[in-house]
Amino acid sequence: MSPPPSQTPQQPVPHRGLGRDTAVAAVCGLVVALMVGASFAAVPFYNWFCRTTGFNGTTQVARAAPSAAPLARTVTVGFDSNVNGLPWKFEPEQREIDVPIGKVVTIYYRVTNLSKHATSGQAAYNVTPLTVGSYFTKINCFCFTEQTLAAGESRDMPVVFYIDPAFAADSENDTVKTITLSYTYYPVRDPAPKPVASSESAPRKGNL
Length: 208
Prior knowledge:
Layout: H1 16-40, H2 42-53, E1 60-61, E2 74-83, E3 88-92, E4 96-100, E5 105-113, E6 119-128, E7 136-141, E8 147-149, E9 154-163, H3 166-169, E10 178-187
Parallel strand pairs: 1-7, 2-10
Antiparallel strand pairs: 2-4, 3-5, 5-9, 6-8, 6-10, 7-9
């Protein structure tokens, strides 16, 4: 009778799943950290990106009114307001107006700090339809600066704009009857210091 064959000792199987789980956890942690960091920089990054690329219905900026007379064609411009993470009440003076294309118009938004301490915010903005952003031109807008409101303070903030006459020359806009200008206020964690003698707001004026 032959002796039983010798058995080779079984080698332990390495726990490969442990290293993979660690890598996945590290990646997830990095993603969360990036998301948290991005939330603090959301408004500055959003404004820079949209102004640079024209993404998401970002409006144009001009220093003066168009030289040509306004057109007979009008378009309805609606005004939307939102607040994200601030104890503010924020709404337009008017919900919509009919605007002759090429005419400079001034409208006001009112913001009120409902908290018992000073808070700061900055607005992001866009227009819809998104393709109209290249024709919606602002001369003055509160979204370009941080706003700091004392407890209970209210402020009227102007938006001066016009619809570029090139809007009417683009056949893709023939069916566009309404444009919506939308703002969302976000908190500013470390507001820039303000000069002691700075003016909080300019006096109200009518349509330019």
